[in-house]
Amino acid sequence: MSVETTNDSLTAARMAHAHPNPDAHDEEHNHGTRRSYLIGFALSVVLTAIPFWLVMADVIADTMVATIVIMAFGAVQIVVHMIYFLHMNTKSEGGWTMMAAIFTIIIIVIALSGSLWVMFHLNTNMMPGHIMNPADLL
Amino acid sequence: MSSQVQTADGEAPQFYELVPHHHAPHGSTQIGFWIYLMSDCLIFASLFAIYGVLGGNYAAGPSPQHLFDLKLVAMSTAALLLSSITYGFAMLDMEEGKQKGTIIWLIITGLLGAVFMGFTLYEFNHLIHEGAVPQRSAFLSAFFVLVGTHALHVAFGILWLVILLVQIGMKGLIPANKIRVQCLSMFWHFLDVIWIGVFTVVYLMGMLR
């Protein structure tokens, strides 16, 4: 009798551990609809046209401001493409696509900002004008 | 109750998964391909970093304002953007099992990709004839490597698309082909994302420098 009980509890444990739906691994990717593709396309057309217009028509006089605005448009458009065309979300593949993307973004930010920062300072400090007193070098 | 449970006293019972844990035949392909795309992203990140550092070193050679034609860039961008939505339509038709529609949309996508490649090759040819060759300045080296790597990706994407069309023509929309179409879809949209970075950083910001 005791063996029966153990066996039953073991089966129960096994059932609990087993996947609730055997086919759960089959189709968990969502592919978007005609509507979501069209929304994504409309957004990306607008987000491409505006920065091109800004530069081609010389709308913003200040170069620095224009650069920041254009980069912001680019960043937003990248997010739009990620969501509407690459169908990124927190659920697909159990969240691992999102984890890989976040990891990649961190590496990209470190690589880009680090390179630009270091090389900018290297350039500035190597400028001949930066050496205040040439006698110091001797 | 056929299974025997033999548990020695004081020993923790071990559980084995006897019920087959079902995985689709290509269950891990998509995540694997995604990891590849992320690593490809890092290649482009380093090329962007190089361009960011060297993009202003003209070595008394031509600067972006002298070389780039934004109308041309706008047209190639339009071609690539359009190819993204046509690929989306191919995916939708594939989901509905329409083989003919899938093939037609994929062909249109490939043609738009070819138009993009045409613009890029025309631009490279034009630059080289003007003497703006990669060895002219650090800016041009960085430019040709970054834009060239992207163009090379598009070229291989088109090659992949042609092979995929042959495979669909031969075997139809079998599960293996569906997975391939989905992977190429990720690849294609990923190249679009990279192109957003390219036209923003290289062309638009180049004109502002």
TrEMBL record, chain A:
One BP annotation, GO: electron transport coupled proton transport
Key words, A-Z: Cell membrane, Electron transport, Membrane, Oxidoreductase, Transmembrane, Transmembrane helix, Transport
Pfam families the record matches: COX4_pro
Chain segments annotated as transmembrane: 37-57, 63-86, 98-120
Subcellular location: Cell membrane
Membrane disposition: Multi-pass membrane protein
Entry GO MF terms: cytochrome bo3 ubiquinol oxidase activity; proton transmembrane transporter activity
InterPro entries: Cyt_c_oxidase_su4_prok, Cyt_o_ubiqinol_oxidase_su4, Cytochrome_c_oxidase_bac_sub4
PANTHER family the UniProt entry points to: CYTOCHROME BO(3) UBIQUINOL OXIDASE SUBUNIT 4 (PTHR36835:SF1)
General function of this protein: Cytochrome bo(3) ubiquinol terminal oxidase is the component of the aerobic respiratory chain of E.coli that predominates when cells are grown at high aeration. Has proton pump activity across the membrane in addition to electron transfer, pumping 2 protons/electron.
Subunit structure: Heterooctamer of two A chains, two B chains, two C chains and two D chains.
Protein name from the UniProt record: Cytochrome bo(3) ubiquinol oxidase subunit 4
Record organism: Devosia crocina
Automatic annotation (TrEMBL), chain B:
GO MF term list: cytochrome bo3 ubiquinol oxidase activity; cytochrome-c oxidase activity
Compartments where found: Cell membrane
Keyword Transmembrane set for record: yes
Pfam families reported in the protein's UniProt record: COX3
Membrane topology of this protein: Multi-pass membrane protein
Domain of life (superkingdom): Bacteria
GO CC terms in record: plasma membrane
Keyword field: Cell membrane, Electron transport, Membrane, Oxidoreductase, Transmembrane, Transmembrane helix, Transport
Subunit description: Heterooctamer of two A chains, two B chains, two C chains and two D chains.
Function: Cytochrome bo(3) ubiquinol terminal oxidase is the component of the aerobic respiratory chain of E.coli that predominates when cells are grown at high aeration. Has proton pump activity across the membrane in addition to electron transfer, pumping 2 protons/electron.
Protein name: Cytochrome bo(3) ubiquinol oxidase subunit 3
